[in-house]
Design brief:
- A hairpin with a 2-residue loop joins strand 6 (232-236) and strand 7.
- Strands 2-4-3-1-5-6-7 form a 7-stranded mixed beta sheet.
- It has 9 helices and 7 strands; from the N terminus they run H-H-H-H-H-E-H-E-H-E-E-H-E-E-E-H.
- The chain has helices spanning 10-32, 36-55, 59-79, 81-96, 114-129, 145-148, 160-166, 206-217, 246-256; strands spanning 134-138, 152-157, 177-181, 184-190, 221-225, 232-236, 239-241.
- The chain is an alpha+beta fold and 258 residues long.
- It is elongated, with a radius of gyration of 23 Å.
- The longest helix is centred in the first third of the chain and has 23 residues, at 10-32.
């Protein structure tokens, strides 16, 4: 007997779309945190549970799966407490920032302002030539207040010389990360969460792992200047963009501001 698609209402379509969206966001979250295999395993378990309890109607095995699901929900909360906290903080921050212009928004169309981007680009290129290590994190929707508290608050305008002076080798703040928020240098010498992803190439140092860590746990964009090679890279949304030129860095910053 063919299925009658006319029985599907708008509410059912909305229900399916919302479930698909939640699954997609969960997939993105698990992939960025290196827990993709766990996510796939959970989906496989749910499919088997539905087949056993709903399709085949195996009462004994179905009741066992029901118990595992009820206990497993609590276990998942404990196991993924950081990811759940990340999701809830992101959700709350978007609610409060819906009417606020994003970082680097220079006009009504939302195009990035070169006056805000170019000091960062020029400072990174200058530090790259001198092989001065640097780590700059640009805040977006996800608040970085916890990270800011680990460093020294500066609250200054974005300035090329100031950025270079902070990361100068003899500066007391050069080892930490700089946080840029709302077109201002918010803090420096900050401590970032380090990624333990085993897929990160071994030739990349601690700065790259810290940049990847903050890009996995937040929606921030992290710029890295390598002290060993002088290469400039970006970590964003759990991905690396390595060995960038000045034009590529400017383009990435512009795209990230949209």
């Amino acid at each position: 007997m063919p299925f009658d698609f006319s029985l599907i209402g708008m509410k059912d379509i909305l229900d399916i779309l919302l479930v698909a969206y939640l699954l997609y966001k969960s997939y993105q979250l698990m992939k960025s945190s290196g827990s993709l295999n766990v996510f796939v395993g959970i989906l496989v378990f749910i499919v088997i549970w539905i087949i056993v309890s709903q399709v085949l109607q195996m009462r004994l095995l179905g009741s066992i799966f029901d118990k595992l699901v009820s206990v497993g929900a609590l276990a998942l909360i404990v196991l993924f407490q950081d990811e759940i906290r990340h999701f809830l903080l992101t959700l709350g921050s978007r609610h409060h920032t819906i009417s606020i212009l994003r970082f680097f928004r220079g006009d009504r169309e939302g195009e990035a302002s070169k006056e805000d981007i170019m000091p960062i680009v020029m400072a990174c290129m200058s530090m790259g030539k001198g092989k001065v290590g640097a780590l700059i994190v640009i805040e977006k929707n996800f608040p970085l207040d916890d990270i800011v508290r680990t460093g020294d608050v500066i609250d200054a305008n974005i300035n090329q010389r100031l950025i270079e002076n902070i990361f100068f080798k003899n500066s007391p703040l050069h080892d930490g990360a700089m946080i840029i928020s709302n077109k201002r240098i918010k803090a420096a010498g900050c401590i970032l969460p380090v990624s333990h992803n085993l897929d990160i190439p071994k030739e990349l140092g601690l700065r790259h792992r810290a940049a990847m860590g903050v890009s996995q746990e937040t929606d921030a964009m992290a710029i890295i200047v390598s002290e060993e090679t002088g290469n400039i890279s970006i970590a964003y949304q759990g991905r690396f963009y390595l060995r960038l030129t000045a034009e590529e860095l400017e383009r990435k910053l512009t795209e990230g501001a949209k």
